[in-house]
Amino acid sequence: MPSDTPEKSTSQLAVWRDLLAALDRVDVAWQATQSATSGTQASAQLPGNVAVALVKASERGTRALAGIAETLVEQYDSGEPFRQVASALRQAIDAWPTR
What we know:
72% helix; single chain; mainly alpha; globular
């Protein structure tokens, strides 16, 4: 008897694994910035072009995290544990400063 639930393809799983690896790299990079800037004002050390690039990249990252949270709302139990997170991330996107 065939299952009504489609099996995730290898390529679909690979995409999700790539996303997990990218999030791990972001975390490691963030921890490295914290170690490098401990005891100093990190924002005062950023050249303008780096700050602008961080604004743009952070907005894209926030959109990605919002999408992940929405996926978890749909797929994780009742979704309730992630509903507030997804809402907060949508609000952050709506309030994101543009340059």
